[in-house]
Known about the structure:
This protein is 32% helix and 27% strand. By secondary structure, the chain is of the alpha+beta class. Helix 1 crosses helix 5 and helix 8 (256-269) packs across helix 11 (334-347).
Amino acid sequence: MRQNEQFIDLLKALIRQPSVVGAEHSFFRVLQRELEERGARVTWYEGLLVAQGNDPESAMFSAHIDRHGLVCTGPNEFQYAAFVTGRRSDLLGNSVSEKLMKKIVNRFQSVPIMAYEPCSGAYRGSGVITNAYVCEYRNNLIFEVKGLEHLVAGTPVAFVDRLKLSDDHMTGQLDNVLTAAHLVDLFGLGFQGTAFFTAQEESGSSWRYLLEWFRRFNGGTHKLIVLDTSPYPDQTAAEKQQVVLRHKDVNANFDPVTTSKLEDLCLKLGIIYTFKDSYIETQNQQALKGGNDIQSLGSTELGRIVKASNDFVQGTTLQIPTTGYHTMSETASFEANSAFSQLLLNFSGMADL
């Protein structure tokens, strides 16, 4: 199943624009242009871009726009941007777990990279990752890079990416430019609601910017739908469903009414879905029987904001199943993307069942 060509062209363009966690300003500029060309009213806030149509309360979607990358932290020294932005790379016991660092350390060997000005997006040079290791003195992940020796501390460095297409799948650093592209495309199709584009989700900070927006106008909601990709261990597991729903994450239970509305739409449209929390709980039951470690239910942007706001902001999540999560080879099927787009259109009242 092929995706709409206009959507693919948009995704190709957006995935080429850097948006390293903690340095998303230049990507917001790109989004503003694309959204305004499609008729949206765009407003900037700290860590947040808000796009609205003529009926802003008709539907509310949110997608984070930051992606993983590096940041220069000293002369020819580079660290994982999410750890630096999230202040999880210090000497006070607040460092990243050794297990997570070892999981990442070999993930980006020989990956081409590019440096850019965080505000303008201006190109500052290119290079390649030659090595990565855990610094025993700082308990932090350090990257060795060739070609960017001239950079000064604070310069963001993005992984160079291009969207790769096959007959049935798309591949690239999809998290989370993929669902952000779906929201931009939705305005081109006539969406009149509200779309939030948040920064710093990969460092666990995006919920603060979103919650501040709702508090600014003293209006909560139970209809917020947070969009993202959802990782699966292999293609077989990922393609057992077209979209992924949730009742809850490790932080909070989600709004049952909004969750049920999405589930009902899936049933009426013939879209295959699963609940990720139920999937993980089943996996954990099997792991316990085998004496293996169990998985966390996962932490989402929505769960964080629900917990922090005491249900002032509520809703549910809608995700696209993928493999190769948080790598340059994250892969999603065209079938899943078409189902995802169909759900957005129907939830927004823009399509008949």
